[in-house]
Design a protein that fits this description.
Blueprint (H helix, E strand, L loop, with lengths): L4 E12 L5 E6 L3 E5 L4 E14 L7 E6 L5 E7 L1 H13 L4 E14 L3 E9 L2 E13 L8 E3 L3
Parallel strand pairs: 3-9
Antiparallel strand pairs: 1-2, 1-4, 3-10, 4-7, 5-6, 5-8, 8-9
Length: about 150
């Protein structure tokens, strides 16, 4: 199977602009500290780009968010018809690369400590896309309810 190029991020918000572009707000680092009594994120966004060469299309697949408590949320279901349409369009435009942009914005997300992962599956192959590690911060005197670590 041809290998797609897949990249994704977790963020606080995704805004669609009038010109068709998207603005991504509040990109989370890999590790996020949340106080023990604040286990709800007001918003959790996921933005995923899946690209492949139009001469080597990928099979149908899904992009899924896996929560640390075992729950899942389907971000995208990329069908054969969608793949055929994007290959036809990019070939007519003389572009060599096809891209799907998948995005989701969840509100009031009750989240547990541990890893939240975006996983893509095309055909029988599984691809890790992005991980958000939630750390349960027990120090209630800390003024930052949510903070990220940087390197």
């Amino acid at each position: 199977m041809p290998r797609p190029s897949i990249s994704g991020i977790f963020c606080e918000d995704i805004r669609e602009e009038k010109n068709g572009m998207f603005t991504i707000v509040g990109i989370f680092q890999d590790n996020v500290n949340i106080k023990a009594d604040a286990g709800v994120l007001p918003k959790l966004g996921m933005y995923v780009r899946t690209s492949f060469e139009n001469k080597a299309p990928i099979p149908p697949g899904t992009i899924t968010l896996h929560f640390s408590d075992g729950e899942t949320f389907e971000v995208a279901n990329i069908t054969q018809e969608m793949i055929d349409n994007v290959v036809t369009t990019t070939t007519k435009q003389d572009n060599p690369v096809c891209t799907f942009v998948s995005r989701a914005l969840l509100h009031g997300v009750r989240i547990s400590a541990g890893r939240q992962s975006i996983i893509a599956k095309f055909g029988e192959e599984t691809f890790p896309v992005s991980t958000l590690n939630i750390v349960n911060k027990k120090d209630k005197d800390d003024k930052d309810a949510i903070s990220s670590s940087e390197t």
